[in-house]
Amino acid sequence: MLNLIVATGNLHKMEEMHSFLDGLPILLKSMKDFAKFPDIEETGQTFEENVKIKARICFDFFKQPVLADDSGLEVLALDNEPGVYSARYAGPGANDQDNNRFLLHKMKGLQGEKRKARFVCTLCYKDRQIEKIFTGTTEGMILEEYKGRQGFGYDPLFYIPEIGKTYAQLSTEQKNAFSHRGKALRKLVHFLEQKRYLALPES
Ligand code: IMP
Fold first, then answer.
1. Contacts of residue 153, Cβ cutoff 8 Å, sequence gap at least 6
2. Which residue segments constitute the domains of the chain, with CATH numbers given?
3. 75 Cα: distance to centroid of ligand 1 (angstroms)
4. Is 39 a catalytic residue?
């Protein structure tokens, strides 16, 4: 069994990871399951810089294999904003609702192709020997109004033309099948299987 501490306090990310990794010999814990955990400041300019910061601080603290996730939304017509500022787009202390409202405001008047966006998820697996990055991206459009009630963050505005739904209209399992996080997790699992970290005991 691989014991993995996830360097996040975001319960939605945890739920998606739990759902994706269900049935595999991995025991996932959020760092917030522990009485003490490090305070991590995301000072990087890219998802990759931030995810490495999270993984390294968390690994140095717990000295156990860790998984970090840095993710966000990139809107083409906004020069890839909000990007690494996705969680705090409307300002420090902003919640999902504030950020969604601010995004709609910034995109007012933009039509058609100008509403193209993509979600990026960068994962970093780190243990004593290995530090490895996995990335997943999903292309979509930003709607002018909310659709769906599931998920978190920008989910009700992120529409995938291929399936005719927003992320917020999908169950966790369905979202994982199409999402940036699901794609990055698939690469992580493939890597761990190749390394035989997920080898099941022979019966
Ligand atoms: P992080 O915790 O610094 O990685 O910030 C992630 C932010 O990006 C979240 O607070 C959301 O605003 C946004 N985000 C990342 N992944 C998703 C997703 O799957 N759905 C909706 N919003 C997301």
1. 12, 73, 86, 87, 96, 99
2. 2-194 (3.90.950.10)
3. 14
4. no
